[in-house]
Amino acid sequence: MDWILFWQIAGPIIGLLGIGATVFLVLWARREKVEITYTNMFVQLKTNEATGIQFEYWFSLIYVRGTRDHYVSKIFIEFNKHPWKKLSPSFAMPISICKGIGNLDTPVKLELGKPTQFGHDDFFPARRAISEEEQKEFDSLVQKLWHRYKIGWKDTYAKTHWKTIHQLKEIEKRGIL
What we know:
Blueprint: H1 2-29, E1 33-46, E2 52-65, E3 70-79, H2 81-87, E4 96-100, E5 108-110, E6 115-125, H3 132-145, E7 148-155, E8 160-166, H4 167-174
Antiparallel strand pairs: 1-2, 2-6, 3-4, 3-5, 3-7, 7-8
């Protein structure tokens, strides 16, 4: 008798949970999706005319799935904190860079299935004179900056997306190393 009462209560609850899960999965499969590909960063310690860090990065965004127009208004990069903490007292280098694209009225439109290139280059000058011993140490730290970093972008809906890039893994995946 108790089992009949249990199943009379549990049956509709299980049915509602099943319907809810099905609706959730259908909506989840239809969501907008943007992927980041072809990430690359180049960082080098320059010591000739002007001492500083030469920095360049570029990547592609591909609008993979969705039905609405999708725009990108800003791109971001955030350096790995450990090497940055050691370099920031000697170089005028922010931990993160925000770069607006286009102007406020016309952000860049992503087209379905077509990669759109983004990138930025900059030079971070030294705050003081760098000795030869420090040059070797700083060169090693500068090379660690591109091992791991974050790339972000602000989309149509004012949502910021972040992706951590492990550059060495990306290079191995592409078969360059």
